[in-house]
From TrEMBL:
Residue ranges the record marks as coiled coil: none
The protein, known as: Cysteine synthase A/phenylacetate-CoA ligase
UniProt GO molecular function: ligase activity
Species name: Paenibacillus catalpae
Highest rank taxon of the organism: Bacteria
Keywords of the record: Ligase
Length: 418
């Protein structure tokens, strides 16, 4: 049972979901007897009635998932009560993160989606002036906006931050006190390298976790070096087999993240299986209060991710950025072949390249185990410099600011062309 959830709050949530979603009541039966262990995990298959419903009031807001799994964007709904709760939770989190900063101006560079749609309002309600950058602009235009607006805080995604770093000249004056991240994994070594480029400390690169389905979930607490789950959001870890994925194996200490939200209404947020892999989820006592913390979200698995699901880009990037200052990392999985492409303007000697290869092999046990077990051939680590052919190198400023990191092909789809 999740921490800090007594039977009254659990039962109230269960009854709310049964009342709002007839298909859920049908699935769980007519009995009014409540037992947490009998509450079903909401897997993707069990959520199909929600995703396929078209009976939506016009005054509800509709947001859509990215579609990166299965190439199909799912509609997620928020009513006015959901929106109010979303904004309030995010204000509380931002207020916590902004403690100790003398920030008066923020820039939201978030692309599209729920976070982008609400960012300006949230920062303004916290007393900061805020503007938003249009997503479709090339990377260089984002830098121009930073130079003109001179924000103290930048709210963005790791992939968008990468895009700006690719095109920023070494002497670019960022002028930032801090960066707040959301939307994608941000490994510690990557955050450290970003901080060095921006002229701030690693603690000033602040990571948060959210989802369209649940809303704000957790933030990285600098004082303990772990992610802390927000009040009112309760996290559990389950095995892949419990979530209907018996063929998926995870190393010790990793589980699938399951979430329950007491405030979310227009999504059945009761034991929702996120398919995110959480590392070292545990309960701790802090200031006399029980909190749920975890080390990181390291990858994603699920019924729509048939190949490459054991590859953690989080771990790969964290290993690389321990030795490389700036790089664009792409991971290619083709059948049982794994290739890591590192494009960097750093002048890497053979000793550093060897250190990167050793780090990748030694610090990512899952990859080593797959190589030894024959599931993967030996991992190829390829380095590309600034003079590499333009089809492989990055950083012209004319390409899309956000670029994909993990590429998975069936072996029959052909080899990647060099």
């Amino acid at each position: 049972m999740p921490i800090s959830m007594n039977n009254v709050s659990l039962r109230a949530k269960w009854e709310e979901v049964r009342q709002l979603y007839p298909w859920y009541k049908e699935m769980t039966g007519d009995s009014n007897d409540f037992n947490w262990e009998d509450v079903p995990l909401l897997t993707q298959d069990r959520l199909l009635p929600y995703y396929e419903s078209d009976e939506v009031p016009q005054d509800w807001n509709v947001y859509r998932t990215s579609g990166t799994s299965g190439n199909k964007r799912k509609a997620i709904y928020y009513d006015a009560i959901d929106e109010e709760a979303y904004i309030q939770y995010k204000k509380e989190m931002f207020a916590e993160l902004l403690k100790g900063y003398n920030a008066s101006r923020a820039l939201s560079d978030m692309g599209t989606g729920h976070a982008e749609a609400t960012a300006v309002q949230i920062f303004e309600e916290l007393g900061l002036a805020c503007e938003s950058v249009p997503f479709g602009l090339p990377a260089a235009a984002h830098l121009i906006r930073i130079a003109d607006y001179k924000p103290d805080m930048l709210y963005t995604m790791p992939s968008l931050m990468d895009g700006m770093l690719r095109v920023a000249p070494p002497d670019f004056n960022w002028g930032l006190q801090g960066v707040i991240l959301v939307g994608e994994p941000a490994p510690p070594a990557w955050r450290q390298r970003v901080a060095e480029r921006l002229g701030i400390t690693e603690h000033d690169v602040m990571d948060t976790l959210g989802s369209i389905e649940i809303g704000t979930i957790a933030y990285y607490d600098r004082s303990i070096g772990r992610y802390v789950v927000m009040d009112g959001v309760f996290a559990e870890g389950v095995t892949p087999a419990e979530a209907g994925l018996p063929e998926v194996e995870l190393p010790e200490g990793e589980q699938l993240l399951v979430l329950t939200s007491l405030v979310r209404r227009r999504f059945p947020a009761l034991r929702f299986v996120t398919y995110d892999v959480v590392r070292d989820l545990r309960v701790e006592q802090r200031d006399g209060k029980l909190i749920t913390t975890f080390e990181a979200i390291v990858k994603r698995v699920g019924p729509e991710l048939k190949h490459g699901e054991k590859i953690s880009v989080y771990d790969i990037e964290n290993a690389i950025f321990k030795h490389v200052g700036q790089a664009v990392v792409k991971v290619l999985v083709n059948g049982n072949k794994l290739q890591v492409r590192i494009t960097t303007t750093d002048n890497l000697n053979e000793e550093v390249k060897a250190a990167v290869r050793d780090e990748l092999h030694s610090t990512i046990p899952a990859i080593g185990a797959m190589v030894r077990g024959g599931l993967l051939e030996q991992m190829d680590v390829l380095f590309y410099g600034k003079d590499t052919d333009s089809s492989l190198s990055e950083g012209t400023g004319k390409k899309p600011i956000k670029q994909k990191k993990l590429f998975v092909q069936q072996a029959s789809e052909g080899r990647d062309r060099e």
